[in-house]
Amino acid sequence: MGFGSRIESLPRSHDIEEGLTARAFDALWYLARQWQFGEFRGDDTGSPYICSVEGTAHHVTAWRSHPGDQPGVWRPFDPSTTHLEALVEAEPVDDVRLAALRLEGGRRLRAPLDAAGRSAAADAVAAACPWDDAGLPAPRGLTAVLRRLLPDPLHLAALLSDPDPGARLDAAGVPAQDRAAVLELAAPWLEWWAPRADAVGLGAAQDPDVAGPHQPAPWNIHHLDHGFDLAAPTAPSPLLRAAAYRSGRLDWPEFDDTAEELTGDAGPGETSEVQTLAIPTPASFAGMPANRFWEMEDAVVDFGETDASVLDLGRLMLVQFATVYGNDWCVAPLRLPVASVTEVSQFLVADVFGGLEALQPCNAVDHSWRLFSQGGASDEADSSFFLAPALPGSLQGPVIEQVTYLRDEMANVAWAVENLVPDSASHAVDRLQEWFDRSATEPAPAMPLAAPRYLVSTDVPTHWFPLVAEQLSDGESIRLRLTGVARLVDGSVRPADPLGRLLADRPVASAEPDERLWLYEEDVPRTGVRVTRAAQLVRAHDGATRTWVGRSVSAGAGEASSGLRHDVLAEPEREEG
User: Fold this and answer.
1) Strands annotated E in 461-565
2) pLDDT by residue (tens digit) across 437-483?
3) Which of 41, 189, 380, 457 is most buried when burial is the number of CB atoms within 10 A of its CB?
4) pTM for the model
5) Quick one: which of 406, 460, 461, 465 has its CA closest to 431?
6) What is residue 24's DSSP assignment?
7) How far is CA 256 from CA 241, 253, 363, 379, in A?
């Protein structure tokens, strides 16, 4: 009876170091590896040297807001003159530019009056047009000083455009000998003010798709994201939907195909033919391994140090693609119009041996291959490509408002916390620091507690607003509704309302006129959600710049404690000594 042994390879191991190091032993081993890789076989597989591509581009001609179940009206969209991100993110009234414009508007009326020696008239006009920013923190520093000297253009425009401005000036106390000087400045001042007021959203008519004056039309207050549609009427899937765009770069991954038909007046649509005759070049990427086995790779990349466990499927697939199939791809440039859905009708490749091959879309052979295609409800093999009108980059200014939605498990309550709010000059005010300062200046109690005192609940910072859970009619879904809180201020109970714009949003098409903001419970996870408002500046492809105030959403910092407790017995203070 004899015994034998057999050597078997280990199909799975705990690391991939052995396969990536490619250790060399002798010359015969190199020859064996060349034979294993098929380098001794000469097959008639010539390299591609030229390709011809033809197709049709279906242009996006319209867009509409779609923050909820009811979409808005279609509006024309021209990528050469308008920027999609600005249309989607911009608030109807630009607070940042409005604050600067109001100061400039007041200065442009007072400066010529002071130069003419009519400062008394300028003071009377400023007193007749006081600054009114109800619900916002008062301005500080230089802005507060200027507002005492300058009239508010929002009131000044109404005064000067009155059918009888002289009577209004008389009632305001402007001396009779100075009224003519003020009326002489009225026409040029109104001519200067009107177009600039329109530019920041003051003179434009109220958008019917917007529930509030500071709420972007695509903004969905119940999910804290932007929702909108694009229409390419002649495309196979004419409706592209971005249902949950939160912020950042607005590119093609944000859009999905829908199985819905294009309804409404989105225009007739436009198409154009695209074609190219190009030389395909091998695709390359940073850290790509050499395509010949004995060639030394760049020392910057060390494949031997790549680490992946047997359960790390994503990394294993990436390493296999890079080392085995990375040199099987070629790139051929094709110039496409911006904001278009392109269908490739013909793709011919000629190789160095004279062969001519007509390529088909990958998903025509395998429907599971959908790289660079739009996701969505449609299961059809759509081989079109959407080139989104993405801007090259943007600059963000300082945050002027910030709200954090978080969960407080100790109190079993969700909260909306106003961290930062803008004052009337669009400068951020830290509400936590403001609360600390106010608490420090409050007078101490006349006499300390001599006995324990029962408290129904403890105090919560004034910038924390509860989100009360409500069950919907389906008996399963829960929403969190912003609720006002009555607080003791200066010895009297007063309702405390949010000071910022984010918590003042109203539901669109609400049956209740004063319905407050509410969110779906799943949109306030344990990590929390942070919503900010800040000014954005972009430079488009034509060199023009555009600014707006937009909203962005990011993850919060986790759970927090408000310090809220119920049924508390406050212990008496102990005397020192």
Assistant:
1) 464-471, 478-482, 485-489, 492-496, 518-520, 529-539, 545-555
2) 877 776 655 555 567 777 777 778 888 999 988 887 777 788 899 98
3) 189
4) 0.78
5) 461
6) -
7) 5, 8, 17, 12
Tell me the helices (H) and strands (E) count for the chain, helix number first: 12, 26
How many Å separate Cα 80 from the centre of its chain? 22
Please give the Cα distance from 419 to 177 (Å, whole number).
51
Please say whether the beta carbons of 200 and 157 come within 8 A. Answer: no
The three-state secondary structure class of 144 is helix
Query: Which carries the bigger pLDDT value, residue 437 or residue 219?
Result: 219
Residue whose tokens read 């927090």: 560
Contact between 398 and 533 under an 8 Å Cβ cutoff? The reply is no
Q: How many CB atoms are located within 10 Å of the residue 489 CB?
A: 13
> Angle, to 10 degrees, between the axis of helix 119-128 and the axis of helix 153-160?
100
The owner of tokens 């291959």 is 369
CA–CA gap between residue 100 and residue 105 (Å, rounded):
9
Summarize pLDDT for 21-76 with one digit per residue, the tens.
666 667 787 788 778 777 777 666 678 889 999 999 999 999 999 887 778 889 99
Please give the full DSSP string across 210-222, using - where no structure is assigned. -SSTTS-TTEETT
Is-contact 303 348, C-beta < 8 A? no
**DSSP bridge pairs for 92:** none
Report how far residue 510's alpha carbon sits from residue 512's, in angstroms, rounded to the nearest whole number.
5
Query: Would you mind telling me the total number of residues written for the chain in this entry?
Result: 577
Tokens 């324990």 appear where? Answer: 452
Q: Cα torsion at 205, 211, 214, 215 (round to 10°)?
A: -120
- Contacts (Cβ under 8 Å, ≥6 apart) of 446: none
Half-sphere exposure of 454 (CA within 13 A, CB side): 2
- Match 């064996």 to its residue by tokens: 32
Per-residue model confidence as pLDDT tens digits over 242-256: 988 987 788 888 888
- State the Cα–Cα distance between residues 348 and 11, nearest whole angstrom: 40
Q: Cα-Cα-Cα-Cα dihedral of 415, 416, 420, 426, to 10°? A: -160
Residue 342: which of 276, 400, 395, 263 has the closest Cα? 276
Written as one string, the DSSP assignment of 304-354 is GG----TT-HHHHHHHHIIIIITTS-EE------SSEEEEEEEEEEEETTS
Q: CB of 538 within 8 A of CB of 386?
A: no
- pLDDT of 33 reads 75
By three-state DSSP, how is residue 35 classified?
helix
Percent of the chain topping pLDDT 70: 84
Is 204 a residue whose pLDDT tops 60?
no
**Inter-residue contact 462 to 514 (CB < 8 Å):** no
Strand 256-257 and strand 375-376: the pairing is parallel
Q: Which helix (H) or strand (E) holds 167?
A: helix 165-172
Q: What is the pLDDT of residue 474?
A: 78
User: Token pair for residue 63?
Assistant: 């867009």
Q: Taking phi first (over 0 means left), then psi (-120 to 50 degrees means alpha), and beta for anything else, what does residue 477 get?
A: beta
Q: Name the maximum alpha-carbon separation found in the chain.
A: 131
Q: How far is CA 412 from CA 223, 394, 443, 567, in A?
A: 21, 40, 32, 15
**Taking a C-beta distance cutoff of 8 angstroms, is the pair 528, 407 a contact?**
yes
Nearest to 105 by CA among 197, 224, 239, 230: 197
